[in-house]
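Supplementary notes (optional reading)

For those who missed the lab, this is the record we used. Protein: Glutamate-1-semialdehyde 2,1-aminomutase. Length: 429 residues.
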Amino acid sequence: MGQNISKIYFEKAKEVIPGGVNSPVRACKSVGCDPPFVKEAQGCYIYDEDGNFYIDYVCSWGPMILGHLHPHVVSAVEEALRQGTSFGAPTWREVELAERITQLVPSIEKVRLVNSGTEATMSAIRLARGFTGRKKIVKFDGCYHGHADSFLVKAGSGVATLGIPGSPGVPEEIVANTIAIPFNDLDALKAVFDKEAKEIAAVIVEPVPANMGVILPKEGYLETLRKWTKELDIVLIFDEVITGFRLGLGGAQEYFGVIPDLTCLGKIIGGGLPVGAYGGRRDIMDMIAPEGPVYQAGTLSGNPLATAAGIATLDVLMRPGTYEALEEKAQRLEEGLCSVAADLGITCATQRIGSMMTTFFGTSGPVTNFDDALSSNTEMYGAFFREMLEQNIWLAPSQFEAAFVSLAHDWEDIENTIASAYEAMRELV
Ligand code: PMP
């Protein structure tokens, strides 16, 4: 596997970009290698600048559920491109995407488009505070909701990968209003509610956390969270930036039949272009400017290229059999990884829901919260990552992330991946 051009680019990059990357985990630091620089991608394959190709399970961290350069998305974006890239005025595509989202996601009666998941969660929290007149928010250890100040408390994803407890630059006064408690622990939730429910504007949760690796909610957990927040007039926010349109057209809320007050979306609804969205109950959403007093805006929000890609992506996802196909392939991959590990006597736990999964090393699971996840063997994950890269399989460069299967992965790709995992794990023994 050649790596000269990537290495040269990375050295140059480090001179002009902090850490050489525009988002921390991309630097591959925690898995002990330098990042390949991507030249292009097609379907489920990624090609780097050194002429290597990989089967891609990062899928741009979730958005590429159809695979790269899906023809329907490409032609939609090309058509939009020819009409102009940004106007700062309303366009029909924004309405079309919003209509689709409101039709498909059970909790969303009205939706506002933004440019990233971070903007969506940040704005949803402001809205919940404006709506309730309360200041505090509850989040869960190991959940990641983007990089806005309020959320950088015991956060997952890159914050966990780099072992950063919070972040310098975030004023204490701001995080003093963020209460972080363990996921899947109703006693911890009850204790917080008993003490300070009247000050809590919102609970924000990834209904299936994926930023500490994939963790499943215990039976009844989300239902109880819903029941208690409703009783206490606390706004329940599902951060479905990953699970939205990943677990089905209605996301995790439809999957579990638990309907939050507000929902944050991103990734898939932009089909690989920059997008985020937050939406929910009409009475809450009507608090947003210009309808109401809670301010939130964006020069590029509802961008024509992003909305074109989003609509086209949802079009394809709405075809019959899509999620069944994703489920079958992901299930086979999970089985394959488990049986390879069992054959080689490697202790690990693969946790999966739909087309997202994480193999935690050094534990036989179940991994139910951040502490469990942190006690997994990240060195071993790093070694596995490097061996898989040698085998032309592109996994997330951190234990605390998910692997995503796309519609572009065919059976041969899945079987090749399982065979590669065998070779990679054999090196770990
Ligand atoms: N919420 C969740 C659940 C996420 O996984 C992410 C990003 N991985 C975000 C919010 C932030 O999204 P973005 O990176 O687009 O700002």
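If you only remember one thing from this example: The longest strand covers residues 200-205.
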